[in-house]
């Protein structure tokens, strides 16, 4: 396959900077205004349904926001989203798929010739 095009590396660098700033600002705000940030995160949790699960209390998931693990997870997802987009004449994304038999594979596994 070879290395991705130089444009992808620039996009990845831009996403890295965006996520780093997001996490840094979030961490500072969480330190300076913990109650307000907690309210905001809980309001987002209400919209997504996270806060409605009785076995998944906010004490379990709010502290994970803006952590190192959060940074790497968001970065990985955002980078994957960059690769899931194709441009006209470019390679198709190598998305994971599941065969009818239940076996997991990627689209590129079906490429021939």
The parts where pLDDT drops under 50 for at least 5 residues are none
Number of helices: 4
Distance between the termini: 13 Å
What structural class do the secondary elements suggest?
mainly alpha
How does the major sheet shape up? 2 strands, antiparallel
How much of the sequence lies in strands comes to 5-15%
Radius of gyration: 19 Å
Dominant shape: flat
Count every beta strand, where a strand is a DSSP E run of 2 or more residues.
2
Strand order of the largest sheet: 1-2
One letter per element, helices H and strands E, the order comes to HHHHEE
On the 0-100 scale, what is the average pLDDT?
Answer: 83
Helix content: 40-55%
Fold and architecture overview:
This protein is mainly alpha-helical. The protein has helices at about 5-30, 35-50, 60, 70-85, and strands at about 95-100, 105. It has a two-stranded antiparallel sheet. A hairpin with a 5-residue loop joins strand 1 and strand 2. The longest helix has 27 residues, at about 5-30. The mean pLDDT is about 85.
At a glance:
This protein has 113 residues and is mainly alpha-helical.
Lay out the secondary structure.
Layout: H1 6-32, H2 34-48, H3 58-61, H4 68-83, E1 96-98, E2 104-106
Antiparallel strand pairs: 1-2
GO molecular function: thyroxine 5'-deiodinase activity
GO biological process, one term: hormone biosynthetic process
Keywords: Oxidoreductase, Selenocysteine, Thyroid hormones biosynthesis
């Amino acid at each position: 396959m070879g290395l991705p095009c130089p444009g992808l590396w620039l996009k990845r660098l831009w996403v890295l900077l965006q996520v780093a700033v997001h996490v840094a600002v979030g961490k500072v705000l969480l330190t300076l205004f913990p109650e307000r940030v907690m309210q905001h995160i809980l309001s987002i949790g209400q919209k997504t349904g996270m806060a409605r699960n009785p076995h998944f209390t906010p004490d379990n998931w709010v502290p994970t926001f803006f952590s190192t693990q959060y940074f790497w997870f968001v970065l990985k997802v955002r980078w994957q989203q960059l690769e899931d987009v194709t441009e006209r004449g470019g390679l198709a994304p190598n998305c994971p798929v599941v065969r009818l038999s239940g076996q997991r594979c990627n689209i590129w596994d079906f490429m021939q010739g």
